[in-house]
Amino acid sequence: MEKRDELYAGKAKSVFTTDNPELVIIEYRNDTSAFDGAIIEQLNRKGLVNNYFNAFIMQQLAKAGIPVHQVELLSETESLVKRLDMVPVECVVRNRAAGSICKRLGVKEGLELTPPTFEFFLKNDALHDPMINEHHIESFGWADKDVIAEMKALTFKINDILKPLFAKAGLILVDYKLEFGVQNGQVYLGDEFSPDGCRLWDAETLEKMDKDRFRQGLGGVIEAYEEVARRIGCELP
């Protein structure tokens, strides 16, 4: 597989074209950002850890019947994935209250949400990822009704798969965001699933084991990521 031109560079990943028009290479960098890119730092091994972590999770989801864009690991920091037409929307499931929902609704962090809540956000750093609804998505042409319904259904299915996986490892899956894309009419889970895009707490101590350690200046960010990987059975180099 030949790696060609850089197609896109985000806050923590770069995407490159290949000699196959339906496949691209994602490179996971050590860049770590918070608050819509207002704070950016380099954390050693972050690209490697997130690459392997994501590949492991995608593999578990694929085994459970979830269509994922991940094809294979290429190197410590690179993965081969399907090239998708991405929907510029984040699908968020919250099993417990944390982060922005606490500020918006004045609820206490850690409140268990039964059933879990679901929210859509527009993926736009300049606008600080505003909350949107299904009507916005359809009216502005970001996705049609069928794609919207499929993204929502897959997001909840993924919750049913990952909650017990993390629970078995002594972790609470507090919340997470997912992004989807389409190739040849099929909706696939795209982007990544790592501690950068979800909240994970130790089930006994409620210690934060995710990117909130970076946002809140708690330190030990990569050490926490590696500990989560170890617990769920994801082997790292």
Automatic annotation (TrEMBL):
One of its GO terms (cellular component) is cytosol. The gene is purC. Its EC number is 6.3.2.6. Transmembrane segments: none annotated. CDD domains: SAICAR_synt_PurC (cd01415). The keyword Phosphoprotein does not apply. Belongs to the SAICAR synthetase family. InterPro entries: SAICAR_synt/ADE2_N (IPR028923), SAICAR_synt_PurC (IPR033934), SAICAR_synth (IPR001636), SAICAR_synthetase (IPR050089), SAICAR_synthetase_CS (IPR018236). Residues 7-231 form the SAICAR synthetase/ADE2 N-terminal domain. Pfam families: SAICAR_synt. This is Phosphoribosylaminoimidazole-succinocarboxamide synthase. GO terms for biological process: 'de novo' IMP biosynthetic process; cobalamin biosynthetic process. Keywords: ATP-binding, Ligase, Nucleotide-binding, Purine biosynthesis. The keyword Zinc-finger does not apply. Coiled coil: none annotated. It catalyses: 5-amino-1-(5-phospho-D-ribosyl)imidazole-4-carboxylate + L-aspartate + ATP = (2S)-2-[5-amino-1-(5-phospho-beta-D-ribosyl)imidazole-4-carboxamido]succinate + ADP + phosphate + 2 H(+). Pathway: Purine metabolism; IMP biosynthesis via de novo pathway; 5-amino-1-(5-phospho-D-ribosyl)imidazole-4-carboxamide from 5-amino-1-(5-phospho-D-ribosyl)imidazole-4-carboxylate: step 1/2. It is an enzyme of class 6 (ligase). GO terms for molecular function: ATP binding; phosphoribosylaminoimidazolesuccinocarboxamide synthase activity.
